[in-house]
């Protein structure tokens, strides 16, 4: 195993950087009409609220009130399936759906069939992992290819897996082996274990090796020893993994270093993409790019994390945005009830009932 460095960080502030914008935001009006905001313009897509919606980068898929699966991209709407699509899922780069037990990926051009008898599946940034009951296989769709991960025997029941942005781990009870999928290849993460405890992220997997109870991390193809005892909990993101150690300290592994983020257990914490957000001593804090920053000296009633950004409501229910040390006042209107963040675009409701969308520093309004 490769040695790592351990450090403890104090409060600090980060250099302001530009926000990466995402241009589309779906929403439903108070009359239940379905609209999309796309690069400064509003377009009505449906007269009624859809059954489900998934945003994937600059594309969006939704199941209409009538049950049709439709794709919105480049300002146009096309119908993928009529009246029978269910269980729509998506991520930043991929979307998939089921028609009965038939699993399809919503790839450019025409949908690609992945399985004719899919029992369960999940969609992450660069992969779709699914259980093919007909073939008795756990497969991954990655980089346009279907890659077998493991055989799933009939008597094994539902397969156990965890998946991150571009990693997946499957635990085989019969062989007592945890298999890792990463960059198109399947390898043994560890074997000879009666259980598997893992957390998958982007290019990183945290795991407890039950043979010696060590906490380890797989980072870009290299394994590191982190702790001699299993953590209380752990969450992996893009290139980082946070965990509460056996002593209660909140720690974060990143780039070969273990950072002690807090000496005491946080009230709560969450890792999403490249950001660790936590509540400590009644304050909202983030661990971002190697430093702990106090975002607010209170706990917001509502917040949302995506793409390294944190949107939240302050004490007066103004909408605020925090990103890499930069604080932005999104809404000067008080009393906002809820918000939604899709990368660099924020949707919130005005007190008048209008939908307001903050995009590239400007607020757009639709009644």
Report on this structure.
40% of the residues are buried. The radius of gyration is 22 Å and the shape is flat. It has strands at 5-8, 24-28, 34-38, 41-46, 52-56, 59-63, 69-73, 76-81, 86-90, 95-99, 102-105, 112-115, 118-123, 127-132, 137-142, 145-151, 160-163, 167-172, 177-182, 185-191, 197-200, 204-209, 214-219, 222-227, 233-236, 240-244, 250-254, 257-262, 268-272, 275-280, 283-288, 291-296, 303-306, 309-313, 319-323, 326-329, 339-342, 345-349, 355-359, 362-366. With 367 residues, it is mainly beta. A five-stranded mixed sheet has the order 1-28-27-26-25, with no helix packed on it. It has a four-stranded antiparallel sheet with strand order 5-6-7-8, with no helix packed on it. A four-stranded antiparallel sheet has the order 9-10-11-12, with no helix packed on it. The chain is built from no helices and 40 strands.
The gist of it:
With 367 residues, this protein is mainly β.
Highlighted features:
367 residues, mainly beta, 5-stranded mixed sheet, 4-stranded antiparallel sheet, 40 strands
Strand order, largest beta sheet: 1-28-27-26-25
Any idea what the radius of gyration is? 22 Å
Indicate the proportion of strand residues.
over 45%
Estimate the mean pLDDT confidence.
90
How many domain regions?
A: 1
Number of strands: 40
Helix content bin: under 10%
Gap from first CA to last CA: 59 Å
Q: Which stretches of 5+ consecutive residues score pLDDT under 50? A: 5-21
Largest sheet: 5 strands, mixed
- Which shape, going by the Cα principal axes? flat
Secondary-structure-based class equals: mainly beta
Count of alpha/pi helices: 0
């Amino acid at each position: 195993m490769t040695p790592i460095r351990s450090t403890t960080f104090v409060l600090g502030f980060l250099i302001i950087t530009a926000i990466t914008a995402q241009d589309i935001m779906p929403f439903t009006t108070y009359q239940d009409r379905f609209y999309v905001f796309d690069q400064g313009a509003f377009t009505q897509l449906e007269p009624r609220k859809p059954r489900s919606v998934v945003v994937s980068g600059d594309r969006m898929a939704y199941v209409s009130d009538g049950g049709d699966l439709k794709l919105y991209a480049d300002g146009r709407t096309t119908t993928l399936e009529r009246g029978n699509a269910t269980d729509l899922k998506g991520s930043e780069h991929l979307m998939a759906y089921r028609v009965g037990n038939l699993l399809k990926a919503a790839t450019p051009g025409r949908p690609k069939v992945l399985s004719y008898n899919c029992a369960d599946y999940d969609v992450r940034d660069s992969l779709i992992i699914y259980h093919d009951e007909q073939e008795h296989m756990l497969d991954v769709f990655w980089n346009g290819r279907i890659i077998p991960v493991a055989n799933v025997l009939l008597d094994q029941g539902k397969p156990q897996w965890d998946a991150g942005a571009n990693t997946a781990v499957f635990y085989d009870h019969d062989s007592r082996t945890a298999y890792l999928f990463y960059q198109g290849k399947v390898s043994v993460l560890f074997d000879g274990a009666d259980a598997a405890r893992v957390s998958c992220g982007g290019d990183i997997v945290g795991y407890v090796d039950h043979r010696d109870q060590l906490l380890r991390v797989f980072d870009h193809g290299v394994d590191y020893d982190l702790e001699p005892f299993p953590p209380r909990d752990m969450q992996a993101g893009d290139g980082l993994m946070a965990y509460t150690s056996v002593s209660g300290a909140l720690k974060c592994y990143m780039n070969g270093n273990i950072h002690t983020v807090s000496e005491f257990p946080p009230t709560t914490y969450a890792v999403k993409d490249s950001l660790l957000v936590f509540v400590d001593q009644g304050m909202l804090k983030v661990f971002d790019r190697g430093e702990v920053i106090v975002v607010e000296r209170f706990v917001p009633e509502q917040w949302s994390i995506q793409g390294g950004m944190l949107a939240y409501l302050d004490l007066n229910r103004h909408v605020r945005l925090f990103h890499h040390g930069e604080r932005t006042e999104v809404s000067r209107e008080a009393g906002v009830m809820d918000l939604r963040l899709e990368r660099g675009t924020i949707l919130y409701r005005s007190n008048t009932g209008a939908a307001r969308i903050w995009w590239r520093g400007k607020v757009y309004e639709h009644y």
